[in-house]
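Minutes, project check-in

Agenda point 3 was the complex the collaborators sent over. CS summarized: two entities, 489 residues total, and the question is how they sit relative to each other. Sequences were read into the notes so everyone works from the same version.
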Amino acid sequence: MKILIGAERCQGHGRCYDRAPDLFGEDDEGYGKVLGDGAVPPSQERDARLAAANCPERAIDLLEEG
Amino acid sequence: MTADDRFTEDFREQREEEVIGTISEVVAGPVSDWATDFSHLEPEWSADPYPIQDDLRRRCPIAHTERFGGAWLPTRYEDVAAIAYDTERFSSRSIILSNFRPPRELAPIGGSPPISSDPPFHHDARKLLLPAFTKAEIAKQEPATRAFCHSLIDVFEGRDVVDAAGDYAQHIPIRVIADMLGFPPEDGPQFRVFVEDLLEGINLPPDERIERVSRLFDYLLVQVHDHIDNPREDLTTYLINAELYGQKLAPDHVVGTMALLLIAGIDTTWSAIGASLWHLAKNPEDRGRLVAEPGLLPTAIEEFLRVYAPVTMARLVRDDVHWHGVDMKADDWILLSFPAANRDPAQFDRAGEVIIDREVNRHAAFGLGIHRCVGSHLARLELRVALEVWLARIPEFTLADPAAVTWSAGQIRGPRTLPLRIR
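CS then shared the predicted structure for the full assembly.
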């Protein structure tokens, strides 16, 4: 699984980096950013799904592989 | 170095001459039908707006009123979101619904940027504030906030009943924002008066409203001059020195943003802390679970923010438009109820229930779109610390007198008197 943030949709609510701080962080203005290359280890797929499901702006895309 | 001569009496005279808007007749009194005559200022709404909103969502779903010169109240999540995102049709030039509409020329800046601003100006004014309100930056407020919460509870020693709204919740955001703006902490009691003047005096005669608002601006100008004479590391000095488009900010931008930062963080967070404690006082199972599992608190806080969302915003319709089945006229108000959106069963499972371990909770308590609350990370920090400290120090508490609980009127809703029995 890979995660992406649609920068044009993100408004900096921070629900992703509150909920899944190993996968998401904030930039200098509080907008969400994907940490690393966005690849999600299997053990953190649930966190990624919850982060996406809690984003008020629906700004997080999950790319399922396979 | 030249003296900063932006903040003279002359600037205020100019400002007052510019403010010529439209005043509508004050209509108050009992509501005949919430679908055609709603008013968020009536006691029935303050006491419990949710059954009214649920009823309107089923049968309307966009209510109307002739009060305030004409206003609409959407109650479905979908409609609230669509308006929040549509900054072309719906202007933020006034975000407090009243009997006074500021002139159209006030857009796109508005009186208190960036909350009152429309694109494209909005983006630039907001960008000035964002770095000071990131989660990382706000985390610096935690130790002092925690110590302050403890000091408030220390004073409860020997008392059986305390007012959790007036003796606890209220003081926390007031102290934090006074620190951030660099205002004297002992001025806190005045801030409550400013907040009530701006947010609750909606149906007062216009002259009296103007008089009350000018008291706030008198205070802010004193603070500006003090900061020009004695610059320091705080938001006031930051705004005085900030630049936009290669120039220092216009004086009404500086003072308008200071007013926003002072007012917007107080009533709102005070309401959220109070409503959470009110819920926990009435629901011993939830209270016991949070005392036993403090790690659940951030999840529970999101649920409290959803069901007791304190903030309703307003918009002004830009041009006549047929929108989602209703005919809106230019300059009609929209009461943008995030609380109603947050209880829409089309968006949330078991929308009317409080589920403190709700894992999927895409609520809109801090708004949607470009005006997402700039202070949301600060609000969450204050709410978490306030509840952590309270639950650790006072794990057992109940409503001392349910009939004595009072709620604020207007767009910000939360308990204003909340007597709790703490032993």
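Noted in discussion: Residues 2-63 of chain A form a domain with the Alpha-Beta Plaits fold (CATH 3.30.70.20).
Follow-up: revisit at the next meeting once the mutant set is ready.
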